[in-house]
Amino acid sequence: MFSFRVKEIRTYITYFVLSVHSRIFSVAWIKDADTPTLLSSGGFKRSKPLPVEILDLIFLFYIASLLDDPKYATVRDYRTQQKEFMQEVCKVARCSRLFNRILEESLCRIWASSGRRPSSLTRTSESGMGHPPALGVWIITAETEFFPLDFSLTAYKALEIASINYHRGVEWNQSEQRFVRSLCISAYPRSLRQLEILRLHTPEEEVIKLVADCCPGLTELRLVRCSMFNDPKCWYWRTHTANQDHGYMQSSDPATVVAYANRIALLLRGLRQLEAIHIGHYLIGIDAVLRHRTNLAHKRHHPITDNMYHIDGALVFSPAHFLATANQDGGPPIDWRAVRLADRELWAQPCPQCEHEYGSPIQRAEGLAARILAAHFESVKSVSFAGFLSDRRIRPSPWRVGREKCGEDLVVWADGTCYPQSRKMQQMVRQGDWWQPLQMIQ
Q1: What's the rounded Cα separation, in Å, for the pair 300 and 293?
Q2: Which class for 113: exposed (0-12), middle (13-18), buried (19 or more C-beta within 10 A)?
Q3: N or C: which end of the chain has fewer CB within 10 A?
Q4: Per residue in 30-61, pLDDT tens?
Q5: Where is 55: in which H helix or E strand?
């Protein structure tokens, strides 16, 4: 991703070194060089320090070189591997106070982040909002509420990679006793190439339309839903307790998957250069969740005791007891009759019974959806879904995809990296705006 940046910085360094060569060896620089160096003859001479401008360019080149690595293939990689990246940067920063200061300033101009904070640029104010990133940044990873609502990123004309938290798109209004929808980001720059949106409650249609209008050259889009798995304590789930409120739980039924994949493809049709797509949906029905929580064959694999209801008879004895102790945090009231979402710890351990019952249906559904998306987009190389059988049920389930034209026929293939020997080729037939397998219409 950053190969052209590395070349650009290398050119700048070469030009700058030549332009300041005379300055480095001028009297003005020599008088500041007070560190003696032992010569082979036994005498001493004073070293001539590089200008700060040169060190800055060298560190920019160093940072860009670290990022120009295959392990940073997706926008998710930048977010999840910040710790490893900072460990490499700190090896240089610890050499001297000067190196630390200049390297930090260089990093601030490349990468703005909340969460693990690779730069001091992201120190938050008392309001919880971060200081605006430098306008020249290439990367923004805002895992927490980093920007004010209705914030425009169009001024960030060098921005190419962004991971944005959208959780404030739906917020509880205590005075009105209802959830209020807001616009998190009002506009994106056309320079953007890789975008990840986290903890999403906003409908995909709205987000995709905005992104397609602002940056049609996007090559990667990841939409990660706020769900019962990654945030069961989210206030939104207190008042949205019906099964249909968890729309990220789809179905593994083949006909339903065909309709689903074509619907997603039509939403994305304004992004014709997409190479990687992640729509955070689980291709298994919500019945699988309920079965895992209630069926004895599944329950024996539970790492904790799972309470389905708020009145458990042990910690909470009655509705009156519950109402007296709950709803003290300023959030929406909890209906004591509603099914309680499982604690995150319930999903911390793999369930062999889930893998036995749902492994094959999910594999078939994901493969079919991936192939249909590949049929719609010539540029797409990878597709991923939310993995119901993944670690803690929150990791992606990735698929490599490809397409081949055989005369007038289109043949697509998909290969799930989580499923050995899952590669399958299918001939696709176009019917109106839809693509579907030939076998399903014969």
Answers
A1: 10
A2: buried
A3: C
A4: 344 445 555 555 555 566 777 888 888 888 88
A5: helix 52-67
